[in-house]
Amino acid sequence: MITTPEVERDKASAPLLALDRIEKSFGSNQVLADVSLVVRPGEVIGLLGENGAGKSTMMNIVAGALQPSGGAIHYAGAKRNFTSIAEGIQAGVAFVHQELSVIGSLSVAENLFLGSLPRNRLGLVDFARIYAQSRDMLDAIGATWIDPKMLAGTLRAGEQQLVEIARAAARKPRLLILDEPTSSLTPHEVSAFLSYVSRARAEGTAIIFITHRLEEAMTICDRLLVLRNGAIVSDCAPDDTSKAQIIRDMTGKDSLFAYRDRQKHETEVALALSGISDGRLIEDISLTVRRGEIFGLFGLVGAGRTELLETICGARRASSGRMELFGQVHVPASPHQALRAGVALVPEGRKTAGILPQHSVRRNASAASLRNMGGGVFVSAKEEARKTRAELRALSVRMTSDGQAITTLSGGNQQKVMFARALLSGPRLLLLDEPTHGVDVGAKSELYEIIRAAADQGLTVIVASSELPEITALCDRVGVLSKGRLAGLLEREKMNEETLLRLAFSEHEA
Amino acid sequence: MNLSLRTLLQQREFSVFAMLLLVALYLTISNEYFLSHRNLMNVGRQASVVAIVALGQALVIIARGIDLSVGSVIGFSAVSSALVMQATGSDVLALLAGLGAGMLAGALNGLMVTRLRINPFIATLGMLSVARGVALLMTGGIPVGYSGWAEWLGAGRVAGIPVSVVIMFILVAVVHIVATRSVIGREIYAVGDNPKAARLAGIDIAKTRMAVFTLTGLLAGLGGIILAGNLASADPNLGMGYELDVIAAVILGGTALSGGRGSIIGVLIGAMLMALLSNAFVLLSISAYWQVVTKGLIIIIAVGVDGLQRGPDADE
User: Looking at CB atoms within 10 Å, which of A9, A109, A414, A451 has the fewest?
Assistant: First the structure.
């Protein structure tokens, strides 16, 4: 753990930011109530809380994107109220959002200088200069391997995230707000990034860190702040609390993330892959999954987890190899055909690949099974309402009505609706790609229960995840992918974090 | 009750309907001829072809596509139908030829979009030129005389109401039910809302897109037969510029160009408003050239208002 020496803390003890009884309401819906907080220069604060707890609202108020309904903000010793993001940036507040805003068709360097591209004497972009400066900007946050001349679109999600962090860091902000900065980074990238955090801290930058990764927050933060239902429920140093306590603070209850030994599953083979390749990103993968099993697919970002699931669900063609589903040859030409064969997918990236944003909760849930709602050409509104309500209730989706827009639900509840959509189609094989990405701890444990319950009833589940705790909490067996190859298959007894990581990196070292 | 009134007021259809009433009221006051049976039937006839073709166009746009070729397909279908009539003397064959020609062009549009993955804008822009060219080649550029059932469709009346208006109302009802209650209709909205999500959810998006383009071609074919029947002649240049009216009607009716949103009733209102506006130009004896300018302005304003309401965030 890195701690700021007491001397330095004292020297810079005048607060940089002070929130005094901030309130925020949207209409009649109060999102923040009486939130007070003091941030000193050089402090790293972890902001934790379930989705919908008010973290983003609070940070948007600090950054100037939203105006508080009540209370006062003091910044750098004066009462300030940023009326726009631009004003916040002027005053030294940088906010790196979770959603990537890198422009894929431009180079990394152009992205870094977007909006203020320097010009040479001819009035053209001074590329020599931006390439050189970009190199320094990327090195400063430890992303030494990213070439500024590369097209940003060719970078992995984690690398794009680093480009955004580099852009924010280059402004030498006094207050840096990071929304889930490490959620798509590989361990190597995380450690590079964390070394930047400790340097920035030494230079007096205050950092507020929104994260769902408790271990990480406990390692690097000076203080952990837990928000629940728009109010701060705890504010203490990592040494004065524990993981279990934080989870209790966040959810108001204890969480069960331990593997629960499940009954011996059947011996019937649900899915058999032999020598599956797609010619690009996955190579020669052979494995079998038994009926009722929860099978994990672990790997680093870019290991081919998503691609393998896409091949099984027909979104991607296998160039060679053979798939069998319950003993029958399985060659789906589209997700539509796979669905008819009983394969349902909950895709990665709820916002881009999951929800239908202009549709209601009910219609999002029924989208994959309209043919089973009244049978045939027409959809029976009654049957649709009945079936979806039953499923949404079974998954305890929290909403006021199933007619409300899906976008008004929190991330965790939206994800439950995605589960409802997949389950309503009556699958024999359920594919889950990063099923709890960006979902809070409470919803996570609920989703785990849903997955276990489905498997207990005989549904075969494949969970692709880059989160080790998720794999170890859920899976009966795991296949580890490394650079598109199957690096190993582990039974429950041999599953531990060290072995999983070693296998995940195996092709990288070769 | 209060809530439902508010949602009604927020609907795009409602504001367009209010505009329709305003124009009608103004014309009633300013021109005694407006409310005459003959004039109203003329307006209805004018609205009918635009509305019929716009029904398909609306579904295409809801599925996040666009079909620029409808005007040319109208001409191509009319000519095909009239030539078959001339050659065979069979009303049935002529009708089938017209509808079939439209469907063929629509299906080709669909194939270009789904198989060759050509952007709908470009695919149908190409078809706009190809279909018109084929119509000119088939006739040597000279209009073909056309009589028979088509005349009844284009100029006939049922209980004093033009046949084409009756067809329009029937088709509006059918397409409305298909759009809101059928599996394919619901899948059209899903595909337009988020194509990637719809595909991964197991919706057959290629089939959905094929269906909307083919249907639009079919309806443009019907539109061509009605227009040619009304003139008793199939001009290879028939339907020139119609795509503008059709797309304007769809957009005025509240269908979002970004896909996933729109209503069939709105399309009907949009088409009637377009017809009423051209009628206004005639009744108020304003230069027809102004009408051309106004049509373009209406599209720009309708989309502009929509853009302003959504705010800058929609560009993200």
Answer: A9
